[in-house]
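BUG: 3D viewer hangs when loading the predicted structure for this chain

Environment: internal workstation, default settings.
Expected: structure renders.
Actual: progress bar stalls at 90%.

Input used:
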Amino acid sequence: MSPDKKIVWQHPSPHFNRPFLQPLAVGLVCAIFIVLILFMGIMDIHRSDRTLIGFMEDQGERIIEVVERLTEENLKTMISASQKAAGGPSVPLSEQVFTPQKFLTDEIIAMGREIDQHWKKEHLSESYIRKYAEEKKLWLVAVLNSWGDVIFQSRPVPENRSGEKGPTINGIGRTGAELIDRLNHLNRLKKIGFIALSRKDKSGTIIIALDIESLRYWGRRVSVEKALEKLGEGQGIVYLTVRDKNALPLGKTGVPPTDWKETNPLLPKILSGTVPMESHKVNIGEKNLLEIVAPLRIGGEIAGVVRLGLDRGNTDQILEKNRRNMFIFLAFVVAIALLSMWLLYQNQNRHLAGIVEMTRELEKAERLSSLGQLAAGVAHEIRNPLNAISMASQRLKREYIPADEEKKAEFGTLAGVIRDEIRRLNGIIEEFLTFSKGRRLELRDCPVQEILGKIVTLISEEASAKGISLRTDWGNEPIVIPMDRDKLQQAVFNLVKNAMESISGEGIVTLSVRNAEKGRVGVRITDTGCGMTTEEVDRVFNPEYTTKEKGLGLGLPLAHEIIRGHGGEIRVLSRKGQGTTFEILLPSERRQTAKGK
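Structure tokens produced before the viewer hung:
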């Protein structure tokens, strides 16, 4: 090893630079908790959505059941009316009963008028008549001119081979008469029913014939439309459309967002009964709807498909309110979690700083203890050479005084300096040894006034020489407490000595005794000295802090240790330039054990 290198040993201190991990763990737990709350909230919203949709589905089922019931009633009414017209069993009918049949007649008349309007515009043709009959599911549409001859017909009518002649209709030509004769024959066979509609100006006739399938279709259509008319508005219905198995319209109210195609894969499932009902959400402009698709049952059989649109306004409001409440609650939980994490982080860092400071203080105490023990041994060894030097200086002063008067005075001065410095060094060593060695207290009951009186007696001459006035205030009633007389006297003496040293020039030091708190006695030392700042008050009992130019400044730390050994405490009240008050609080009853510090 090169001579310029050194081996330096340093006691390793624990590293607390890294922050505690507890806030991170709490943050993870809070994050999991928040995710769980969010998941539960979303599940609750979905559950509420399903519940409300189920409620709307039940409402839709009830509406469809009403449509089915009214449709069946209308169909029964029409059947009853047709049986009476054909000479069947007589059934008492009211005006309400005839309404569906009249409605069917009105529908046929409306179709005749529609054809008449095209006739007036000269838009009629064979292809138009065929297409119209096919779209309206009419068995026959025929148009006769003013002479009663057929000019257009959607299909040929089979000939009447029975030879029977039907009733003659005035104004009908040969071809028209043949058509009427054939239709009458089919009507008697209960295969065809027809209506002849004459134009107002007698310029022609329109014949519309229905077979059994057409009559069944139009009977159902009229019954459904009449049912929808009775159903009316309200109940949240935006639209309701009904189609038969062949996708032909049976009735509607309102306008659906889109028109269904025959290739829709849902239609076969609904018509076969595989899917009893299907619902999904749709939008029309700013309206949110629930569309319900269900079969239309007439007489216990599926006769068509019902498409119902219900307004979801109230449902969406409830869901939005639940969603808003959930997010407010979630935000509240997140705020609490973040606040808790922040408080925990601050608290942990504060404790961390305390632990670091405590560790440093312990390390410092260990170093001071080691140095103190070492210094105590060194100081003890120094006392012997000092005693030898003191004795030698005294012998030199006594036996080796120069004869020359001038040198004699100088010799006496130098000998005095040596003697004073030896005395000062000896005092410093004594003070250090007193502070560093262990102190076991021997407690005995003794009046506090006795200790204070002795201190006043010892220091009164020095105080008088400095122009300091000593005042006492402890009354005539003795206050007896358990104490180690010598140690407590030393502690109070150091405090009084410090009070006198803080006064430059004339001043006052006051000693007083009072019953401060329950079970404790207070001794106050008040001076009119220079006072201390807050920083100086915080460090006044630190052995490493002193404002003295001479000595070690261990008087106040020694007094503090002695008072703590008695189970008491020292309070300091001071302001810069206004003096200082030291208050010693001592227990008035003896503790079970008294250990030295």
